[in-house]
Amino acid sequence: MTDMANMTPAEAKAAEKERQRLLKYYSASQWTLIWWRFKRHRAAMVASLLLGLMALAGIFAEFVAPYGPVTRDTSYIEGPPQIPRFCDDNGCSAVPFVHGTMTKRDPVTLRALSVPDPNVRHYLGLFVKGEEVKVLGFIPTNRHLVGLQDTDQKIHFWGTDDLGRDVFSRTVYATRTSLSIGVIGVLISFVLALVIGGIAGYFSGIIDNVIQRVTEVIRVVPIIPLYMGLAAAMPKEWSTTQVYFAMTLILGLFGWPTLARRIRSQLLSIRYEDYVVAARLAGAGAKRIIGQHMLPSFTSFIIVDLVISFPYMILSETALSFVGLGLRPPSVSWGVLLQQAQSVRAIEQTPWLFIPAVFVVVAVLAFTVIGDGLRDAADPYAEAK
Amino acid sequence: MSTILDVKNLTLSFRTDEGLVKPVRDVSFSLERGKTLGIVGESGSGKSVSTKAVMQLLPGIASVDPASQINYTAKNGETFDIAKIRPGDPRMGKIRGGEIAMIFQEPMASFSPIYTIGNQIMEAIQLHRGLNKRQARELAIEMLDKVGITNPVARVDQFPHEMSGGMRQRAMIALALSSGPQLLIADEPTTALDVTIQAQVLRLMRDLQAELGMSMIFITHDLGVVAQVADDIAVMYKGEIVERGTVRDVINTPQEAYTKRLLNAVPRLDRVVPPKPLNNNRRLIDVRNMSVDFEVRKKKLFRTEVEKVRAVNNVTFDILKGETVGLVGESGSGKTTVGRAMLRAIDPSEGEVVFHRKKKGDIDLAHATEAELQEVRSKLNMAFPEGPVQLHSLGSDLLRRFRPEMSLVFQDPYSSLNPRMTVRDIIAEPLVASGLMNSREKIDERVREIAARCKIDLEHLRRFPHAFSGGQRQRICIARALVSKPKFVVCDECVSALDVSIQAEIVTLLKEIQAEMGVSFLFIAHDLAVVAQISHRVAVMYHGQFVEYGPTEKIFFNPQHPYTKALLSAVPHPDPDAQFNPIRFDGEMVYPIATRTPQGMSLRIPERGQAATDRPIELIEIDDGHFVACRLQDGPVSSESRVLEPA
Amino acid sequence: MLRFTLERFVGMVFTMLLVSMMVFLIMEIPPGDYADRYAFRKYSGTGVNVTEADVQAIRVELGLDQPMLVRYFDWIGGIVLRGDFGQAFAFETSVTKVIGDKVWLTAGILFATLILTYMISVPIGIFAAVRRGSAVDYGLTVFSYLGLALPNFLLALVMMYFANLWFGADIGGLFSAEYQNAPWSLARVWDMLKHLWLPAVVLAWSAVAYQIQTVRATMSDELNKLSVTAARARGVPERKLLIKYPARLAVNPIVSTIGFDVNRIFSELPIVAVVLGLTELGELLLKAYLDLDMNVAGAILLMLTFAIVFMNFLSDLLLAWLDPRIKLGAT
C-alpha cells in the first residue's frame, strides 16, 4: 500500500482514477461486463459496424437503392461499373460525375457495347428525385440517397446485368431478403430448439431419449441435400412471397437440432450449479429458479449460439437459390443474383456480377467474428475465479 | 556436507494483461545434500513457481530476472547456474528427470491417460539409465514394488484411471525415483489425498529418502506436514521469503510477524480444547435410521440398468438446539450426503428426519420485529400448526415454506454465489424466494443487519460477487444462510477451500453467531483439527456408516474404534518434536467386538483373519453418550439400550 | 471391445432404420404422387387426355394405392433384400442402373477429400497451437475464417477460372472427353485421378479451415495439461514429448468428427458438382430433385446418409481403440 500522504498530486489523481475504475468494475452487472469485454475485441467491433451498415441498407433499401430491383436500363446492358470521378481530360469539378454512355458495335463480334462518352458529364447528387417508392413499406417518397442530378440519366455504380438491371440496387434489395431470411430462419429454429431442448433438458428419461434419437437422425442427414429435397417439393406455381416464407420455414425447421443439443447440455450443466442448488434451498420455486437464476446465465450463451448459426442459414439460402431450388426470380437475394454468375464465362466477361458474393462473404465473416467475440465475452466470470 | 542447490535473488516476471507481474521477488534459499527443505506458504505466495524455475518449467509468459542465480551441483561435481542455461541445453535434459525429479499435487493429471503406468515409468528409465526395454520393465516393476504397490507385475500394465488416488501418487513416486535422482521436488504431493493415505505417502517418502540419500524440496501449505518431513523451512508470503531456518527454530520460536500469525491460525489437534458438550437435551433434529441410495445408470446393450449404490447406510443421531455436531470422514464416506439429505436437498431413501418445533405460538425468531413476526407466523402456522415436522415426508410445497428454518453453506464460495446478482440480492434471496418477507424496506433492513453481523462492509452490498476474494465470499454465503434466522445450518466443508488465516476468522465468526442466535450447526469437514475446535459432538463416518459418535473430547482424546484411531494418528502435527507414527489403515475395516461386563462395555479388537461373528454391526453406547460401531458378543440386548437416545 | 462393437453396431442399425423412415417421408412430400407424374410424362405431347381413371390404374399397377406403411416396407424391403431402389421415371430405367458406377466416383471424391483434409489440417493445427500468438498462428486464424465464410460454389468457380488459365480448358468434370463414357480401365482411373484434385481441394477447403481450429484448440488444451509438464520434468525431449503426449490426443477429436466431415462434404457436393461439372451422386441428386424424380433422389439421399452413419460407427470404434478411457468409462 502506498502512503496517501507521500503521493504527488498526479499520483494521487491516478490512484483515485484507478479506485473509481475498480468501484465501477465491482458493481458492474453481467451485461456491462460482457459489453466491456466485447469492446476489447476490435475485430468484432468492426464486424458489428459492417453488419449494422448492411442491415440499415437492407431496411431502407427503397431509399438507399437508386432504382428498383427490376427496373431496366435498356441503354446500358451488361454495362461495367461506373465509378464517380472528379477529374477527366476536360478538367476537374468539385462535384463528382460520371461520363455519359454511347452505344458502339464491337468490330469483330458486332455485339452492341455500351462505352463511356468522355464528352458528356453527369453530375452526382444526394437526395435526388427518382422513382416513387414507399420506405419501410409505408413512407412514400421519390427521393433517393444518391443518384444523378439529371433525372433522365441513370448511374450504375456496380454495372448492370444482361437485362440492364442495376446491380447496386439489386444487391441492396437482396441484402434485405437474405438477411431477413437468416433472421426469421434463426428465430424459428431458436423457438423450436428452446421448446425441444428445454423439454429434453427438463424431463429426463424416455422423453429425453426419444428426442435425443430424433435429433441424432436429423443431424446425420447431410443438410443441403435435405433442404434441397424440401425446397424441390415447393409447387412451381407458388408466388414469390409463398416461396419466401416456405424457405424460411425449411431453413428454420431443420436448423434446430444443433441448437437444441446445446440448449439441453447448457440446461443440464446449469441445473447442478451450486448457486442453483442454493436458490432451491433458499425456498425458491421452479419458476423463480428458472427465471431468476438459470435464464440470466443461460441467455448470454444462447445469444452466442444464435449469432453463430446465422452464417449457416445465409450460406444455405445462397446455395439453394444458386442452384435454382431456393428463391426464384423476380425475388432478389444474394443467391438469386449469383445465379447469373454461374459460369467461368461470367468471371471473364461480367465480373461485376460477383459483387453480391462479396456481401455473402462479408456477412458470414462478420457473423463469425462477432460470434467469436461474444463467445469470449459471454462468460465474463470465467477469469475472475 | 555440500550444497546441492543454491538459489540466490531469484526474481520472476510474468507478462499478463494487467502488465508485468512479479510473483516471486528476490528469493534465496539453499539445500544441503541429503536434507529436506520445506517451502511453506498460502495460495499465491509463489512457492510452487519458484521451484518450477529450477526445472525450467515456467510458463511461456514468465521470464527470469538477469540478477537471479540458481546454482546447481550436478552428479559429476560440476556446478553451474541453471538460470543462465538456455532451454534445450543437453545439461538440462540430463537434469530433468535424471538428476532432479518432480512430483505434483494431482496424481491423476500428472499421468497421461492414454498410456499405461508402466509405459510412462519405462520412458523415464530408458531416457536416463540406458537400459533396454526388458530391463526397464523389470526395474519399473521393482520400483512399483518398492513404493508398496501390491501385485506390481499386473499393475505395470494398468492405465492411470484404473488406480486409486493414493496408488497413483505412489506410482508417481516410483516414476520419479526410478531414474535415481539426487534431488526430488515434491509440489504439494499429498494435498489431494485423504489423511490416512497422506500419512502413508509421507512415510514412504521419508523412508525412501533415507534409503537413497536424496535431497528433497517439499512444497506445502500444511505446517503439520512440513514439521514432519523437513529439516529446514522457508516461509513464503506474497512472493518473498519472510523467514528461513531449521524447522525447530521457525516453528517453536518464530521471529517474523507473518510466521507468528500463520502458526497462530493453524488449528492444532494436539493443543485444541474442544467445546464442552451442551448441558441441555432440547433436541432440534432427530435423524432415525436414515439411508440414502444413489441410482447409477449403466447403459447396457438394449436397456439401461439402474444400479443402486448406498451412499449413506442406516444413520441415526440427533442435534440439540445451539449445538454443533461435527461430521468427519474421508472422501466418499457419505458425509456430504448426510448433510444434504437432512436439508432435503436429496431425498433420503429410508428413515426419518424430524425437525422439532415448539408448540403453536412459540415460534422463536428472537429478534424479529412485531410486524415481521406476524408475517412469519401467519405464513408458517398455516402450513405447520404445531409440534415436530416430519421433514423426510414433507411435500414439495410445504418443504419450500419450511426452507427458512434451515440452510446450507457450501464448500466453494465461487460457484455457490450467482455471479449475476448483487450481494444484497444474494443475501436477500432466502427471504424473497420463500415469500417470508415482502416489503422491500424490511428486507433491506434485515439484509443490512445480517451483513453487518457477518462483518461485510455495507457499501459492498451493491457490488457483484466478482469483486470479492474467497474469504469475503464465504462471509456472504454465511450471511445468506443466516438471513432467515434459521435454526439449523449445514456447513459443508465451508472452510476447506480457504487459507488458514481466513479459515480461523470464519470459524470464529460461526462460533460468535451460534452464541448469539442459538443456531445449530452440522459441521462437515475432513480437517479434524478444525472440527475439534468448533464441535460439541463429533461423528466419524466411513463408507456411509457412522463408525464412532460422541462428545468431541472423547472421540479425539479417547477414540475406541480402530478406524478413528488410525484417522487421528494420521494427522501430522505442526510440532517437529512430536512422534509421527501413523497406524496403517489399508481400507480393510476391522470392527471391535463388544462384551458387556459389570463395569460397562469392554471392547476387543479381533485378530486379523479371525472369523467375525455373524452378529450385525451396530452402534453401541460404551460410555456416557459415546457410541462405537461394533459387534455385540454375548446374547441379544434389549432394544432400548441399542437405540441412540441422548443421555 | 467385442461388446462395445456390438452395442455400437446395434445403435447404427437402429439409426439407419430411423433415417430410412425420414428419407421415405421426404420422398412423399412433393405434391401429387409418382403415378401423377408418370401419367403426365407418359401422355404429355401425345394429345391424349389423361383422366383420373388412367392415373388410378397406374397407381394400382404400381401398388401406390397401398397405405404408406405398406409402401415403406415395400420400398425398404426391396432395398435391403434385393438391392432394388425402384424405378427412375425420368430416365425410364431402374434406379440402380441410373446410379451405376457413380457410387464409386463419389467414394473416390470423398476419400480424396478426407485424406487431403487431414493431411493439411493436422500438422498445421498442431503447429499453430505450439506457436500460439505468433504471426503464423494469426495468419492461419484469418485463413480459417475465410475458409468458413467463402461459399463453396464461389470457390469452385474461382478455382475453375484459375485452373482454366493455367491448365487449359480440360479441367472440369471427372474425366477427359475421351474417357467420359469409356469402360473402366487403368487409363480411365488415371484420367480420373488427374481430375480429382480440383473437387477435392474445393471440398476440403472449409473442412480444413474447421479442423485446423479443432486441432489447434485441443492441442492448446493438451499442451497446458499437467501430464505434459510432468513428462517434461522427467526429461522427455521436446519434439518426442509433443508427438507422444499432446499431439497424439489432439487427433482424437478429428477421429470423432469424421462423420461430420463426411456430412459436410456430402452437403456441399451437389452444389460444387454443378459448377465443376462432376458426374457423381451429388449432381444426379440435384437433377433428380429438379425433375422431382423422388425414387432416385431418395435412393441417393439414403446412400449418402447411410455412408455417414457407417462412418460414425467406424469412428466410434477407432476412437475406442485410440483412447483407453472410452471402453472403460460409461457410454
Quick rundown:
The complex is a heterotrimer of chains A (385), B (647) and C (331). Chain A has 385 residues and is α+β, with helices and mostly antiparallel strands. Chain A contains 14 helices and 4 strands.
Features of the shown structure:
heterotrimer; A: 385 residues; alpha+beta; MetI-like fold; 2 domains; 4-stranded antiparallel β-sheet; 4 strands; flat; B: 647 residues; alpha/beta; Rossmann fold; 10-stranded mixed β-sheet; 6-stranded mixed β-sheet; 21 helices; globular; disordered C terminus
Written overview of the protein:
The complex is a heterotrimer of chains A (385), B (647) and C (331). By secondary structure, chain A is α+β, with helices and mostly antiparallel strands. Helix content of chain A is 58%, strand content 14%. Chain A has a four-stranded antiparallel sheet with strand order 1-2-3-4. Chain A is flat. With 647 residues, chain B is an alpha/beta fold. In chain B, the strands form four sheets. In chain B, strands 14, 17, 18, 19, 20, 21, 22, 23, 24 and 25 form a ten-stranded mixed sheet that branches. In chain B, strands 7-8-9-3-10-11 form a six-stranded mixed sheet, with helices on both faces. In chain B, helix 3 crosses helix 4, helix 6 runs parallel beside helix 7 and helix 14 packs across helix 15. The longest helix of chain B is centred in the N-terminal third of the chain and has 18 residues. The C terminus of chain B is likely disordered. Chain C is mostly helical and 331 residues long. A two-stranded antiparallel sheet of chain C has the order 1-2. Chain C is globular. Chains in contact: A-B, A-C, B-C. The interface between B and C is medium-sized, with 37 and 30 residues.
